[in-house]
Amino acid sequence: SQTIHQWPATLVQPVGSPLSLECTVEGTSNPNLYWYRQAAGRGLQLLFYSVGIGQISSEVPQNLSASRPQDRQFILSSKKLLLSDSGFYLCAWSVHPLEDTEAFFGQGTRLTVV
Amino acid sequence: KNQVEQSPQSLIILEGKNCTLQCNYTVSPFSNLRWYKQDTGRGPVSLTIMTFSENTKSNGRYTATLDADTKQSSLHITASQLSDSASYICVVSAFAGNNRKLIWGLGTSLAVNP
Questions:
Q1: Which among B46, B50, B99 is the top mutation candidate for probing chain A, defined by the most A β-carbons within 10 Å of its own β-carbon?
Q2: Residue range A33-58: average pLDDT?
């Protein structure tokens, strides 16, 4: 069966520090991978998606970047965190494009920038 | 502007009771509609996904209905349990030019009390 791992679960980082969140999927090949952010009182916002190794599409311009160094690994990064980067970050995967099929989400990372 | 609006914003019911959550959308044209359950501090889990041609779909004690003419969907929970306490999010997959995108509602927060 397929599983998705996302870590860390919680993170407190000072403003200006770097960020690296990792997500891995097991039990499937060539998944579509996604990073979402969920801010308080707001719906989920798609940040990045990837349909293959090294292929990254950005949905919104921001202080963050994503990379896919391996087929089932998706990394969310920042060189210098801003207070506005605080939020709940979710990694997800799907077999087909997300708009056509259900997505499977990780447990999320609660990021607090102080 | 595409929008997905959910009501009520929050709801408290007693264990064993039924409840119905509402989702109204203005998305057009529309591909599919899904309902997710999100426990506090966790990632969303898919409950149902319906295309425009389906008007009802069940998943255990959860039954979703869709009226594509009035652009309304509902999620009915039967014989509620304490574990049903969560946020329920309505998501619509919309056509945007040659692409599609998911539009997330803000969710209904359900509390089931003993």
A1: B46
A2: 91
